[in-house]
Design brief:
heterodimer, A: alpha/beta, Rossmann fold, 2 domains, 6-stranded mixed beta sheet, 4-stranded antiparallel beta sheet, 14 strands, about 35% helix, about 30% strand, B: mainly alpha, two-stranded antiparallel sheet, 5 helices, elongated
Chain lengths: ~290, ~130
C-alpha cells in the first residue's frame, strides 16, 4: 500500500515543547483528522511534513520522499494551509490566482471559478478588505484549485462562521472523489473531523495518544449506564476509560466495547440501563483525561 | 442528477447505518430497481459529505445482507433478490420488538395492557411515508 505520509520515531524539541516518538502513517487516498488542544503539537507536525522544520531524530516521508531533503520536489504536490501563510493585503484575489496559476501548471481555472462562487468571494477585491473568514476561504481556494495530491490543512475551519465552515467542508468533500489524493487536517472542532475523516489521530502533549480508523474508533467506544454499585474490580478493568457514580446509576465509558464486555458487567451484578455511542468530542476528552490521570 | 443521501451527523444512528437504511428504503420503494448501478463509494462519500471508510462499511453490510452485489471493476448493483431488503427490515423489526417487550416488562405491564397499547398505536396515522 502506498503511503502519503509516514512518520517513524519522530522527535522535535521546541523550547519547552517537544514531539515525542511520533509514528503515524496515512495511506494514499485517505483523509486523516488530527485532533488536539492548543499546544498539542498539531502545527509542529504539519511543519515537519511540509519540510519547514527538520526533525531532531526519526524519519519523515511525504509522498514517498524524505523530508525536508526532498521538499523542492514534493512542494508542487502539497497544498499547505495554515496561519503561517500570508497573502498580500494590497493585492486582489485575482492577482493571487494569476500568480499561483503561473507557478503551478496544474492550476484549474474552471474549478477556481466554481469555488469563487461557492465561497461567495469577489476576485477583484483586495485581500486587505477581506474578513478573517474570507481570507481563509481565499487561501483554501488558491490551494484547492491546483489539485495538490496531499492537502495539509492546519485548522482550516477554526474561526469560521457556520456558513463558511459548511462551504469549506463541502469543498473538502470534493477531494474524496479522487483515490490518489490524501488529506491531513487538524481541528479542535471534532464534529468537522468526525464527518469526513477515514482515520482519526489524537495528539496530546506532543504524543499520539490514539490513532485508528474512524469506524473502529466509534465502534469501540460506548457510554454505558448501569444500575448497581461500584466494586474495586471496575477500576482495575483496562477496558474502562472512565467511571462516574450518581446513585443508583453508574456511568461507564469504555474503549473496548463488545458483547462480552456487556456480559462481563452483567456477570458482576450490574444491570445495564442503556448503551449509547459516543461523539468524537466525548471520546477525545475522555482519552485525554485518562492519559492525564493514569 | 447525482445520487445523494440525506445524512445527519447529530443522529444517534451511526452514519454507516443511516446509509444502509436509506439505500434499503430506496430499493424497497423501487426507486433503485434490481440491476441499478449504485454510485461509487467515493462519489457517494463526496456527494453526501461523509468519509469514504463510512460508505465502504455501509456497502459491505449491504452486500453481506444480499441487497447489493459488487463486481470488481464495475461497481455495486442492486441485487436481484427482492426478499433481501425485506428480511433485513424483518430483523430490525424483531430487534425492536424484543426491546419493546423488555421495556414493557420493566414497567410491569401485563400482556393484555401491552396488546391494547400496540393496538392503539396501530390506529394512529403513520408519520413516515
Amino acid at each position: 500500500m502506498s503511503l502519503a505520509i509516514a512518520l517513524h520515531g519522530v522527535r522535535k524539541q521546541y523550547g519547552e515543547f517537544a514531539l515525542h516518538d511520533v509514528a503515524l502513517t496515512l495511506p494514499l487516498g485517505q483523509v486523516m483528522g488530527l485532533v488536539g488542544v492548543n499546544g498539542a503539537g498539531k502545527s509542529t507536525l504539519m511543519r515537519l511534513l511540509v519540510g519547514l522544520v527538520r526533525a531532531d531524530s526519526g524519519t519523515v516521508d511525504v509522498l514517498g520522499k524524505p523530508m525536508p531533503d526532498a521538499q523542492v520536489e514534493v512542494k508542487q504536490q502539497i497544498g499547505y494551509a495554515s496561519d503561517d501563510i500570508r497573502l498580500y493585503r494590497g493585492q486582489s484575489l485575482r492577482w493571487h490566482m494569476d500568480l499561483i496559476g503561473q507557478i503551478y501548471p496544474a492550476w484549474d481555472e474552471t474549478y477556481a471559478q466554481d469555488l469563487l462562487s461557492r465561497f461567495d468571494l469577489r476576485a477583484s477585491q483586495k485581500l486587505g478588505g477581506f474578513s478573517h473568514g474570507q481570507r481563509v476561504k481565499a487561501l483554501l481556494l488558491l490551494i484547492f484549485a491546483r489539485h495538490p495530491r496531499l492537502l495539509l490543512l492546519d485548522e482550516p475551519t477554526t474561526g469560521l462562521d457556520p456558513v463558511a465552515r459548511a462551504e469549506v467542508l463541502g469543498a473538502l468533500a470534493d477531494v474524496l472523489r479522487d483515490e490518489e489524493r490524501s488529506v491531513l487536517f487538524s481541528s479542535h472542532n471534532t464534529a468537522d473531523i468526525e464527518q469526513l475523516a477515514d482515520s482519526i489521530t489524537f495528539l496530546h502533549g506532543g504524543r499520539v495518544v490514539a490513532s485508528d480508523d474512524r469506524e473502529s474508533f466509534l465502534d469501540r467506544w460506548r457510554r454505558i449506564l448501569c444500575r448497581g454499585s461500584i466494586d474495586t474490580w471496575l477500576g482495575e478493568d483496562p477496558g474502562i476509560a472512565s467511571i462516574r457514580e450518581s446513585a443508583p446509576f453508574i456511568e461507564i465509558k469504555t474503549h473496548a466495547f463488545d458483547e462480552s464486555f456487556l456480559h462481563g458487567l452483567r456477570h458482576r451484578g450490574l444491570e445495564i440501563v442503556s448503551v449509547e455511542p459516543m461523539a468524537l468530542e466525548d471520546i477525545f476528552v475522555t482519552t485525554v483525561r485518562r492519559g492525564a490521570n493514569p | 442528477m447525482s445520487d445523494e443521501l440525506v445524512l445527519s451527523s447529530h443522529s444517534s444512528t451511526p452514519m454507516y447505518a443511516q446509509i444502509v437504511e436509506q439505500v434499503v428504503a430506496k430499493v424497497m420503494a423501487g426507486q433503485w430497481p434490481a440491476g441499478y448501478l449504485l454510485p461509487s463509494i467515493r462519489e457517494l462519500a463526496s456527494n453526501s459529505q461523509v468519509s469514504v471508510i463510512t460508505v465502504k462499511r455501509a456497502y459491505m453490510e449491504l452486500e453481506h445482507a444480499g441487497i447489493i452485489v459488487t463486481q470488481h471493476g464495475k461497481g455495486s448493483f442492486v441485487a436481484d433478490r427482492p426478499e433481501a431488503s425485506r428480511s433485513m427490515l424483518e430483523a430490525e423489526f424483531r430487534t425492536q420488538l424484543t426491546g419493546l417487550i423488555a421495556t414493557a416488562r420493566k414497567l410491569g405491564l401485563e400482556p393484555r395492557q401491552v396488546r391494547k397499547r400496540v393496538d392503539e398505536a396501530l390506529l394512529q396515522p403513520s408519520d413516515t411515508s
